[in-house]
User: Fold this.
Amino acid sequence: MDEQAKPPTTRLFLALWPDPALRHLLTGWRDAWVWPKGAAPVHADKLHVTLHFLGGLPSDRLPELLDGLKVPFEPFRLDLMRAALWHNGIAVLEPDLTPPGLAALHTRLSDALVALGLQPEARRYRPHVTMARRAAGATVPTDGPPVLWDVRGYALVESKNGVYTMLRDYA
Assistant:
């Protein structure tokens, strides 16, 4: 029996995408860590805050997704001030508190995903920038330059063969 070819998919996520100056600050934080052998620091061009991971979706849905993921947006400030090493070896930079504007954006995007027939992740949202993976045993920096992010929009990003491409900037 012949199996039909699977339709092409596109691996997607929604994110807060830093401008070059902010990316430079984030890179400074990443470089302040002391990484153990085998750690995988995140390349500078991939530093971001994930809002929702969508995974591999049928590529023919992309036009619908691009339009359907536009939600009301109010600018807010995100202060990333704390380096932490999570139990699973993920090194992060995170805020002390989730700003109300970020929580509202996350909820609006969750609602948009449901309206598009997609299921948002069920786990509690923890905003962060991943600095490295496989980083168990890393030395966590105690302080660094303040990352005061004036968020003016969000992005739909494609991940393909290790390269991130912004498909739409919702500013």
In short: Residues 25 and 154 are 19 Å apart (CA to CA). Residues 9-170 form a domain with the Cyclic Phosphodiesterase; Chain: A, fold (CATH 3.90.1140.10). The chain has a mean pLDDT of 94. DSSP finds three helices and ten strands in the chain.
